[in-house]
Give the backbone structure.
Amino acid sequence: MLLRLFILIPACLGWSLAQETPPAEPTPPPVAEPAKPSVVKLDETRYQVGQVTFDRKTREIRFPTKVNMSEGLIEYLLVLKQGKAHEALLITEISPTHLNLALTLLRYSPSRELFFLSDEAGRLTGNRADVPAAVKNGARIAVDVEWTENGNTRRVPVNEWLQNTAKDTVMAPGPWLYTGSDFSEGKYIPELTGDIAGVMVAPSAIINYPGSDNLDDVTWFAFPKRVPSVGTNVTVIIAPYSNTKPLP
């Protein structure tokens, strides 16, 4: 009997110790590198990346959006669906990276002329970058919107959907600016913020409005009599901007 107890005691102790030993931490799977965008050729001049299509001959870019606001204060022309939708005219589900890739492949030149420079301490200086005229010209784009109304396809400059309440006028005809945004820790900032096109200047956005009152956050509103109803499918069309006047 005594011998039997000596045999059982170590076995019981071993079982108890095994129960109290915490399980080993599972080895996390390796983090996969994000897949590189795949550009698909549609025909002789047109290509597609994600939901963005572009034409290397006309340099026109098209992608789907929806009307998000038909009235109210606007700070952004376009954001991702999960972005700052409470102050954006249009929303979309495209990848900002894909849009920027299309702009790059079509040789649009980003210009940082709207943004204030910083000093060595990171403080804004009040001075803007000195951008060559050739870069300014290459960054200016026309932004149109196309939608179906009563069975007919309509297309207008997106400026016609915005009104300046301080001046009680529609946004003046003119270009938008490809500003390009930036990267943070290897990630494209618009993918993180959802900012694609700003009416009020936003360094995080790919496109910004270069006209007057673009630093005022209480000036621009959706034009209720011109903007289709919320949820309307809208194709945004980017193309080169033709300007016969010298740039400032």
Summary: The chain is about 15% helix and 35% strand.
